Amino acid sequence: MPIKELVFNGPVKRDDRGAKVAQVQEWLCLNGYQVKIDKDFGPATELAVRRFQKSNRLPETGTVDEPCFNALTTPMRRALAPLNGAGKTFGGLVVNYAKQHLAEHPLEIGGQNSGPWVRLYMGGNQGPDWPWCAGFVCYILKQAAGTSGVPLPFKPTYGCDSIASQTQQSGIFVSEKSLASGNVPKSAMKPGSIFLNRNSKNSSDWTHTGIVTAFREDSFDTIEGNTNDAGDREGYEVCKRIRGYKNTDFVKVS
Prior knowledge:
Layout: H1 19-30, H2 43-55, H3 66-72, H4 74-79, H5 90-102, H6 116-121, H7 133-148, H8 160-170, E1 173-174, H9 176-181, E2 194-198, E3 206-215, E4 220-227, E5 237-243, E6 248-251
Antiparallel strand pairs: 1-6, 2-3, 2-6, 3-4, 4-5
């Protein structure tokens, strides 16, 4: 099925209005050409398009034709490029796909939980009611599963609590307590596993999730969506972070 965010729906030009214009404005901003995202293709948007075209050695028409649109969306096309799965474990592919996305700096644009990257991870949904950390994790898992032929470890979901519930039932949930006691040794946890931040005041509420790229005795490395440099769960981008084990559970991925 075609990726909706990458489908060219016809030229976009001066005096056009609507969703196609907003999409062009989003991608201009994501490429460093900051314009107002107002669904109105005015002189500022046209100038930004011309500058983008010039920097990418495209005809400076000010109209977004298919070559221009494809150039604007190149970061997402690179993130979605299939990897060679030969000799790779499922967990290794999860990490490599996460790194491939991270390299393109997926970022909200046009408002909280909004923009092309969020819609990609969230099945077309966006806005304040659609935090996207779980959507990011599930999208990466689907890419890895598609390459490796390995079944998904749980049904794709947009909610952290759903990930926890499903994996508790299937026996691949690993609690903080199990790791701390040594019941599950940290050496048994592999890159590509999923972390789940737990509400310190409610042991049945998980508030954030991401992909673990390395485990150590007292900390672990991650790539995670809907976060930022401060580690907020309602951030605005895909980041790599170093986290501690407190109030954190895991999903073991082979």
